[in-house]
Structures are given as structure tokens and as C-alpha cells.
Fold this protein.
Amino acid sequence: MSQVATRLPEDLLEEIEFIEKEENSDRSTVLRKLISVGVKLWKLDHALSLYRDRKVTTWKAADIAGVSLYEFIEVLREKRIPAQYTVEDLEADLRGLT
């Protein structure tokens, strides 16, 4: 593992300390967990943005987000993002399967 150092505002540090107490965990474990969750959320948001902008297919967006195609479609449904699936998208997805 690598070490990373950063400066945090006092209010954010207080939030982290609260989480440490609630989780009965040490700071390193809490920070790793929070960073992991944050990275996953960022990847999903990034994939949704690319999908909305028609830069990637549903299949590729799911891959970028690190979730299954079914999970990504479910997120699209929950967020009420309309499907943007063309014949070209289908062909690209089928090529990705081989």
C-alpha cells in the first residue's frame, strides 16, 4: 500500500471522527472506505455523463462505471435517463462480446 497525505478542513475532520466512532474503526480504515465509495460514485457519475452526451454505449458506460449492464440500466431507470440505444450501439455492443 502507498501512503497519501492531505490537508482537511476542520469540519470535514470532525465528520470523519464522527464516522470513526460510529463504525468503531480507526481513521485509516474509515478513510479507505470513504475514498473507495467516493471513487465508485465518481465513476458512475462520469459514466452517466458520457452516456447522456452520447459518447458511449450503455454497455461501455456500465464498464466505465464498474457495474453490470443490468445495474447500469437500473440506475438509468432510477434517474429517469431515457435510453439512447441505436442500431449502431447494438452493433458496437455485439462486437464487444466477441
User: Anything to note?
Assistant: DSSP finds five helices and no strands in the chain. The chain has one domain: 10-97. The chain has a mean pLDDT of 93.
